[in-house]
Write a sequence for this structure.
C-alpha cells in the first residue's frame, strides 16, 4: 500500500549493497518488502544520507501472540473531524468503529479510522487506519506511536496483526506530514511486535 502523505504502510523486497554486505532482509514477507522499499530511492522515505547506509529496519521478533481477533463495534453516525498532523496539514478522519480485543489476559479497545480523502482514491475505498501508542513508544519503538493498515471487513470481526505495525514516515524524515495518534488509542502495555525505533548511523 502506498499514500504520498504517509498514511499508509509501504511494502518492500530484497536488495543488496553493490557487492558489499547485504542488509537484513527480514524473516517475514512484510519485513522483506518493507526493507526493499526503504532501500529503493524511488520509494524510500529515508533521507539520502540514511538510505545510502541503510542495511534494514530493526523489528521485534515475529510473535503470533500479537495476532488477535477483535470485535468491531461500528460507528455509522460518526462525523469526519480534523486529525492533527506533524505539520500544519489537517487530515479529516472519522471513527469507523471501535475494536475490542484481548491480549495477554487484558482487555483493550482501539478506535479505527476512515480517511475522507483516501476513500475517494481507487483501490483505497475500503482502507482503514489504525494508529496506536503503547509502552514501548519512545523507548524501543518510535515515540510518536505506530500505524497498522486494514481493510473494511465483511463481518463484525477483524484480525489485528501487530507484527505489521510500522512507523510514520516522520520517524525517518521530518519533511513528511503524519497523523498524530489520538490519546484514545494509548495501550497500557508493551507491544513488542512490528517495527522498532529507527537508529540513525
Amino acid at each position: 500500500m502506498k499514500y504520498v502523505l504517509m498514511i499508509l504502510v509501504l511494502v518492500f523486497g530484497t536488495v543488496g549493497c553493490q557487492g558489499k554486505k547485504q542488509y537484513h532482509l527480514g524473516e517475514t514477507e512484510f519485513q522483506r518488502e518493507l526493507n526493499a522499499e526503504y532501500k529503493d530511492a524511488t520509494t524510500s522515505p529515508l533521507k539520502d544520507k540514511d538510505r545510502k547506509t541503510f542495511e534494514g529496519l530493526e523489528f521485534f521478533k515475529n510473535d503470533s501472540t500479537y495476532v488477535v481477533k477483535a470485535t468491531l463495534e461500528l460507528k455509522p453516525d460518526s462525523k469526519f473531524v480534523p486529525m492533527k498532523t506533524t505539520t500544519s496539514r489537517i487530515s479529516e478522519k472519522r471513527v469507523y468503529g471501535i475494536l475490542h480485543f484481548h491480549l495477554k489476559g487484558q482487555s483493550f479497545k482501539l478506535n479505527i479510522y476512515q480517511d475522507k480523502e483516501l476513500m475517494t482514491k481507487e483501490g483505497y475505498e475500503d482502507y482503514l487506519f489504525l494508529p496506536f501508542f503503547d509502552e514501548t513508544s519512545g523507548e524501543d519503538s518510535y515515540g510518536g506511536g505506530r500505524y497498522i493498515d486494514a481493510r473494511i471487513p465483511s463481518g463484525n470481526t477483524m484480525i489485528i496483526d501487530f507484527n505489521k505495525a510500522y512507523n510514520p514516515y516522520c520517524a525517518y524524515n521530518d519533511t513528511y506530514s503524519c497523523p498524530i495518534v489520538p490519546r484514545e488509542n494509548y495501550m497500557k502495555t508493551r507491544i513488542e511486535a512490528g517495527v522498532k525505533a529507527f537508529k540513525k548511523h
Q: What stands out?
A: The chain has two helices and seven strands.
